[in-house]
Predict the 3D structure of the following.
Amino acid sequence: MREVAIVGAAETRFGKSELSYRELAVEAARGALEDAGAEPGQVEALFLGSYSPGTFVHQEHVAPLIASELGLSHIPSTRVENACASGATAFVSGMMAIAAGLYDVVLVVGAEKMTSTPVAETTRILAEAADWENESKVGLTFPGAFALMAQAYLHKYGYGREILDAVAIKNHANALANPYAQFHKAITAEDIANSPMVADPLTLYDCSPISDGAAAILLVAGDAARNFAKPAVRVLGFGQASDSLALYRRPDLTTLPAARQAAQRAYRMAGVSPRDISLAEVHDCFTIAEIIATEDLGFFEPGEGGEAARAGATSRDGQIPVNPSGGLKAKGHPVGATGVGQLVEATFQLRGEAGGRQIDGVELALTHNVGGSGATCVVTILGRAA
Amino acid sequence: MREVAIVGAAETRFGKSELSYRELAVEAARGALEDAGAEPGQVEALFLGSYSPGTFVHQEHVAPLIASELGLSHIPSTRVENACASGATAFVSGMMAIAAGLYDVVLVVGAEKMTSTPVAETTRILAEAADWENESKVGLTFPGAFALMAQAYLHKYGYGREILDAVAIKNHANALANPYAQFHKAITAEDIANSPMVADPLTLYDCSPISDGAAAILLVAGDAARNFAKPAVRVLGFGQASDSLALYRRPDLTTLPAARQAAQRAYRMAGVSPRDISLAEVHDCFTIAEIIATEDLGFFEPGEGGEAARAGATSRDGQIPVNPSGGLKAKGHPVGATGVGQLVEATFQLRGEAGGRQIDGVELALTHNVGGSGATCVVTILGRAA
């Protein structure tokens, strides 16, 4: 396949924003172009990942809207939706467009504006990413779905909730060094113990927040990468896989088969193995999801992810730093932006531009973006410019 | 670019259906596989065009849902949304995936379930494909937007509404021979004169209906095409372009620049010109849109499309048959399905399988799928197997 590189990356701060949907997307997109030293006129196609702008802000058909706001009126522009994996799926679309030889310069944007919607309605809108007819309509919203996974995991492997605490505490600590993060607030096990229960065993601090935000990357054909201002980050591999939306059809709630398949495809394309990865940005929409992710990605054996989290193996100075950005948990989770935001963070880390959250000696970074309760997963592997 | 062919095609009947969203999509997808003599297990990726299943039927994340219902759980599956051009945009995504060399066999589905929503709400949902903040929120829904285009066109070129009548009468007549069409009802100029005004000059019979429906095609790499049951239809060219959602930003309401750009790209890729086209399925969401389309596609000069419609140049036996299927006007317009349905009709025509609506000697067929009031346009050119 044709080589592709990331030459520009930017994101808005995640959290409650005064900016509108289109203002957020435009800020991130312009940031990525500026980062690359590129002019808007160089962009040949736009892919926009967004989950549900129609319900959140009454605006569908967002891809040409954002292209037009950027002054890119006539380029092909396409919105991609795969629930909370919309961002990384838009990235895959951009990869395919360049690999097909159609374009050399493609802008990938992820955006969501969630905080202008009443919270109860937001919970319903998010639940439409699960199987509405069979599960969410009768009350299984996402906190419940991931609580079932947490119960299954804790029961199967004999853990207490201290492994969940470890993820929340670590990610809140990591976010302290991330200026783009929604929360800058260290938390303790006592804070978690005193926080409201959402869906047993998941408390408020086990859940990622409702957020506004946008992120963007500029993708270019490998041979064009040298024409831009920043060192190119190489896309070495990616994998996408799907699964049933409905949990009742899954034989095992302690793993996401789509994540395993996506990871296998990404590792195979990149020709690397889990032990080669320097850091991972994973989809911790709930704390349990990060633990399961570290197993699905092959960093730990089934059942060992909980102990690894507890023992600090996923902290900044651990065996495999996971979510140095703070993750969805503390960086925030504007759903359509999240997958692109992970790629932005990986790009900053690979360039050595991650400031106070920089991990030393990053050679390979992995991102893991999940839609729904695992019906979509996209894994990417990025490497430093040779 | 790698050659791609259509080897399977199917659609549900358009109109008010008792089937659910997922049942419609599955019926069309299974139909396309059966048509090709393919097994579900041969499909390597799914692209699903759908406009707003979240608001219409409370179900987002529809791509893995449909993949799963088809027993294709772990293949990559992606929803694409570009308003009423979602279907053709999904086709473009499928083309890119094969051209990139990632897959050899890709299923493209378009689906929408609209009739279970109250009509006033449907008008609002559709208006979210226009610029909500600046136009639709204050009342410019699509009948109004296309009425402005019609007024501009009639005024600029000095026509009366008989040119609109000609489109509606022709497309209703064509649909009589289409078993998949929503309406099997011939109409007269008198029927139109007696019908309710929707947005001056557009009456009820100038507007495409609200519909349920789904359509699917099986795309394969050119060298794999001989392994399937039906003659391959070759994809010779395609083009996609965007424009401002807001009408107030358009300098001229009598043409869609995105359609002109998409057509130019498709003609260039195919190496053909408008006069080579045997028939066209165009996006007549309103009668005026068909007239403008025939000019944007280069069949007629600006201002001559109205006279061509009046004189029968676009009828079944005219210079360039337009919408032999009945078009959106009479075949129906389940928005996400429409663009894929156009490709299904073109495939049937190129294979000589269009029954009572077959056009003689079809060598090249063109499809033209528009999103919103022209902020997205996708044009494709298909040819008979060599």
